[in-house]
Amino acid sequence: MSEPTTTDDASAGSPHHAIDYVELSARDLPAARAFYEQAFDWTFVEYGPDYVGIQGDGREQGGIAVGAAPPLVQLYSDDLDATLAAVRAAGGTITVEPFDFPGGRRFAFVDPAGNQLGVWTAASE
After folding, report:
1. Which of 44, 51, 70 is nearest to 2 (CA)?
2. What is the pLDDT of residues 60-109, one digit of tens each?
3. If we measure between CA atoms, which residue out of 5, 32, 8 comes closest to residue 20?
């Protein structure tokens, strides 16, 4: 899994439990990037040969990773541990336990319908 990052304040514009970040995948990252730049005027930040961040509204809104995975929707949480407990209590299956990444923490889960989502929170200052 890639990690959502942003410029400046990592959680700026991220309402609690709202859809915040979408990760797409592409077998040919340069071709995918060129398509989105041309079709939608998207701008990107490169994080290495396998990931670019999608920029918009003054923050990072998503990313494109090398691969063939289905899109991954990321929710934002003000309290990752409470959200983790709520997902478990509601019948979700945790597929990736919480882990730290530069800028925050995140986990992934599958809902009872089989949809995989991620939840992230900004790093404490």
Report:
1. 51
2. 999 999 999 999 999 999 999 999 999 999 999 999 999 998 889 999 99
3. 5
Predicted model pTM:
0.79
Residue of 78 and 8 predicted with greater confidence:
78
State the residue for tokens 């514009």: 13
- Chain centroid to Cα 11, Å, comes to 12
Choose among 24, 10, 16, 2: nearest CA to 75.
16
H or E element that contains 24:
strand 19-26
Pick the CATH number of 14-68 from 3.30.720.120, 3.30.1360.40, 3.90.580.10, 3.40.190.290: 3.30.720.120
Q: Any idea where the domains of the chain sit in the sequence?
A: 14-68, 77-125
Beta bridge partners of 106: 99, 120
